[in-house]
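In the previous chapter we treated chains in isolation. Here, by contrast, the input contains two separate entities that must be folded as one system, with a combined length of 234 residues.
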Amino acid sequence: MKLRVLYFARLRERFGVAEEALDFAGVTAADLVAQLRSRGDVWAEELAAGRAFRVAVNQDLVALDAPLPEHAEVAIFPPVTGG
Amino acid sequence: MKIVVQSEAFDLGAEVDAMRRGRTDIGAIASFVGLARDYNAGSGVQAMTLEHYPGMTEKALAALVEEAKSRWALLDVTVIHRIGRLLPGDPIVLVAVASQHRGEAFAACEFIMDYLKTRAPFWKKEATPEGERWVDARASDDAAAARWNLP
């Protein structure tokens, strides 16, 4: 299925990309993270187990076991620091 | 209810006046203003830049105001959060809550700030004498939010 994936803040800078269209063969947010991690380099480093990041699907925060719907807008970002 | 994400400064007095105007049922207004500090995590801060996730930010702020309204009898709520470049002393965020009695206003104001700190997609980047750095999330913010048993 097709996904639109967005990155913010430190992750956007480290990955060098703000947004991409992606073909995704998995089911959950964790599957997407694993697919991105397999790119190696900064992707493997920033998305390694134990690193703090958040995932939102269609602009709602989700747990990593959340399924991704077709054409979802998925965002991956560091823990938020507003206020 | 007023929920705004903007780069411009805001005025607490004007926001509270707008909340009171034309009504006499409000007995209490509690407000909070967060400011940009000149010092953080061991070094001076010359400026900060606030990034956000357009779309999700507004949705998350609306959801936290709705959650507050479901917990307390609130007559009005204003949330304003700034984005872009800010200097030390600049106001960053304003929360004002109106209710019949002070208890609801105090509690809801603190709840909204605790919720915003952990759920609303904003990120701060600080300019320091050592260079730019992204601010790390604080465990104490998670602990503050956890007190409210968020869904």
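Chain A touches chain B at residues 6, 8-10, 52, 56, 59-61, 75, 77-83 (CB under 8 Å). The radius of gyration of chain A is 12 Å. Compare these points with the single-chain example from earlier in the chapter.
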